[in-house]
Structures are given as structure tokens and as C-alpha cells.
Amino acid sequence: MRIQAAVIESPDTAFTIDDVDLEAPCADEILVRITAAGLCHTDLSSRARWPQQLSPMVFGHEGTGIVEAIGAEVTGLVVGDAVCLTFDSCGVCAPCSTGHPAYCTDFQVLNSSGGRRDRTTPLSRAGEPVFSGFFGQSSFATYAIARERNTVKVPADLPPAVAAPLGCGVQTGAGAVLNVLRAEAGSSLVVIGAGGVGLSAVMAAVAVGCSPVIAVDPVASRRELAVEVGAAAALDPISTDDIVAGIRELTGGGSDYSVDTTGRAEMINQAVAALRPRGSLALVGLGAQVALDLPPLLLKGVSVHGVIEGDSDPAEFIPRLVELHRQGLLPVERLVTEFPFADIEAAVEAMRQGRVVKPVLIFGS
């Protein structure tokens, strides 16, 4: 079938909307008509360093839509189901078998190899392959092929602009709090970086009764939004003389938990310094190499957790996020700015400039 997709022709080039051909789903695959797709920094960082030999390429990894067709081996979904797409996993390795598919031993092959496990791609243009399979979906397109492992049914009345970010950004931030740190009511929690992932962590912490919840971000509008969604305070790391002292004062001696979304050594070391003894830090920001100051880690008995995708099992965790949203405890819509699919580059620029938190591309019917 002929569809439209946002294609990059070579690494670090702009998205261009073009007609491409999409194969019918294989036996274990699902055809999804995309209604919305979140735009994430992972799409942009991957675009910048994507290998030439896997170009042209279609990105997009926060898709949502309607099931249009299913393969013969698909048993848990039917045509017409509303679904949220997320990362793919094998389902049989040790991490998958123990409820931790974000650490699937085949994660790279299934999510960032440019196609299926067998190295084929369902997309083509003028008879030549167009690479795909980004996070098992490549949802910057009017239709996408996914597998049952990375397709989660959601309520039909859940707004697409809310459903889309659940598959990555929201589950990453919320999962760091709920699945990894397992923060409890009354505990103090600091979030470094108030983008989409960080604000999702803030909302999850507020939802389970953490107090106080503190956000740290240099952008005034994001600090304001953090307070609006429940943070007790939001600090500017640039104008605040001593962030560590500020956090200690607000938490009565140091935070119980901290989530860093920046991947920056300076901020990570400050987060460690601001923790109380035996506090826990979750790292979700994919930065470069980071030098940690070991004495505070060791002398305070700090636990540091590396986190991908919120250590989530999407089949269980995305429905939990949907329920929190229905209860008014996870107001994802407060983070979202909608853009027509055709305006994808405008959405990219708005995100780069910090004018929006979570851009979501909306597709026509």
C-alpha cells in the first residue's frame, strides 16, 4: 500500500514527507493507522548519528493509532483496536522473562537496526528499500508495522495526543519513579531537568504522594509548569547560588530520591550531594561519559540506578499510566503541543528552542 512517511535521506538531514510503499504485515505483525506520534529527543539524536548505509530511514517511536490488519499469529488484538506503540522486545531472554523487557538482549536488533530481525524492511520507494523498524514501529508515517510485543491496547476514548507519549517519554519518567525508585508517600524527590521525561517523573511522584517534589530546570516556563502539575518548588540552576543547599533546605536535610534526565556530570554530582544518606538516584539522561565524585557516593551509601524506558513492562505499565490519567493524577495533556504531521520540522525547531515540552504530530483521518 502507498503511504506517506517523514524520511531522512542521509544522516542529520531534515525530515521530508514523501510517498513510500508499505508491505502487508507478516504473520506476527500488526498494521496500525497512525493517529498521533510524539517527537522525542531520541528521534533527533538518532537522526544526527544514523549510519549512511541504513539510509533513507523513517524514525518515530511514540506512535498511537488504530489496528487495520493483523497477521495470522497475532492473538491479543483485533482490527479496530486503539493501540499505543512502544519499544520492541524478544519476550524470551532472561530480562524479558523476568519482567524487564527494556533490557532485552536483542534490544538493539529489534529497535535500532533499520528493520526486522531478519534485516528486511517493510518500506520501499521506487523499488529500493527504505529503512524502518525504529523502536519496532517507525511511526513518523501514516501507517506503521509493529509486533504484538510492542503494541498495547488502550481505551478508544483516550485522546491520541495523550496516548502517544505513553510509549516512551512518559513511561520513562514515570517508570523511574514508580518501577525503579519505588518512591513512597511522604518521601522527598528531586527531578533534574523538567522536559517531557522529567515532568512525567514529577507527576508520578506527586501521584504517589511524595512530598516535597522539587524540579530543577533553567527554563522559566518549565519551572512554572512543574509547579502547576504538583511540584512544591522549582529551582533555577543558573540563578540559584547553591542548588545543593537549596534542595537540602527544602527537604529538611536532603532528598530521599532523585531523578536526573540531563546526563550532565555537574548536575548528577549535585544530585548526589543533595541526597540524604542511603538515598537513591535514577539516571535516565543519555549523556556522554560522566565523571562521578565517588566520596559522596560511598560515604553516604547512595544507590545509583541506570534506567532505560522506566524499566517498564509496557503491557502492564501503560494500562497503569492510562488509569492514573483517568484519575487526574497524570495530566499528560499539560505537556503536549500538537502539530500537523506536515509540520514536523516546525515541531523539531520548537522543541530545540525550548518553546514546547512534548510536541505531538497529529495525522488526518
UniProtKB/TrEMBL annotation:
Entry-linked SMART domains: PKS_ER (SM00829)
**Protein name, per record:** Alcohol dehydrogenase
Gene3D superfamilies from the UniProt entry:
Medium-chain alcohol dehydrogenases, catalytic domain (3.90.180.10), NAD(P)-binding Rossmann-like Domain (3.40.50.720)
Q: Lineage of the native species?
A: Bacteria, Bacillati, Actinomycetota, Actinomycetes, Mycobacteriales
Q: Name one GO molecular function term.
A: oxidoreductase activity
Q: Please give the InterPro entries that the UniProt record associates with this protein.
A: ADH-like_C, ADH-like_N, ADH_Zn_CS, ER, GroES-like_sf, NAD(P)-bd_dom_sf
What protein family does this chain belong to? Belongs to the zinc-containing alcohol dehydrogenase family.
- Any idea which UniProt keywords this protein has? Metal-binding, Oxidoreductase, Zinc
Q: Which organism is it from?
A: Nocardia nova
- A Pfam family recorded for this sequence: ADH_zinc_N
Residues in domain Enoyl reductase (ER)?
A: 12-361
Keyword Ribosomal protein annotated? no
